[in-house]
Amino acid sequence: LADHVEFRDAIATAIPSIIQLLKDDNWPARSAAATALSNLTDHVEFHDAIVTTIPSIVQLLEQVCWQARLAAATALSKLAGHVELHDAIVAAIPSIIQLLKDDDWPLRSAAATAVSKLADHVELHDAIVATIPSIIQLLKDDDWRAQSAAATVLSKLADHVEFRDAIAPAIPSIQLLINKADDWRARLSAVTAVSKLADHVEFRDAIAPAIPFIIQLLVNKTDDWQALSAAASALGKLAKHAEFHDTISTVIPSMIPLLATNAFWRGQAAAATAFGEFSQIFYK
Length: 284
Hints:
It is a lipid-anchor. Belongs to the beta-catenin family. This protein has helices at about 10-20, 25-40, 45-50, 55-60, 65-80, 85-90, 95-100, 105-120, 125-140, 145-155, 165, 170-180, 185-195, 205, 210-220, 225-240, 245-255, 265-280. The relative contact order is 0.06. It is elongated, with a radius of gyration of 23 Å. The protein is an all-alpha fold.
């Protein structure tokens, strides 16, 4: 209805009631209210009323019900699209970072998306930079979920040059996940993060020591086909950067046995993918 200008005066009078629903005992009501308020921000005439609701939406991030937390994180990422709401949203950023270690994957995904969307707004960069050490610390968490989410978020934040100095200390911990993580999903996220971070020249010297670990994912014949696929894809991407050519060239012989007819078939497929990439780069 708010898309129609003739209804907006009437809708404005309903906003206080929607705000009250943020404190309702039922999570569907709280979630619906957060979603409705974020949608109403598409219309500038509602902004003054909505800015007062942001502290209540932030409080939803602390709710026991994951659906309410999900709605709040999603709403805040959308609210960040409006510069006049940024000052109020800054207070929510540390709470959103904490959601990266949540047990519920939809919430971790929403938090990661929210952080990357918030980072698109330069006015929020100072607040986000302050949280990067906390994100890096999650790489050392005992839970693969936190490790994976942190690696993914850091690789996305690195798209912004302002964050790269703060992210650089994370690279050794991301490399350690490739080599030592107990769960394949953490290794998968770490491998993907390294290949993405390599797009930025200032990280490449630090990333080079990770290449042998990525090769080992193939050589060790892991049953985790996603990790194998990610390793092959990462090597293909890394090989596009001249700085890694010498390192990759030295490990190619150790990959050749993966192509043998009696080799583990998933390793064969991953190695074949990698060699396909290498042939276009090394043998032009």
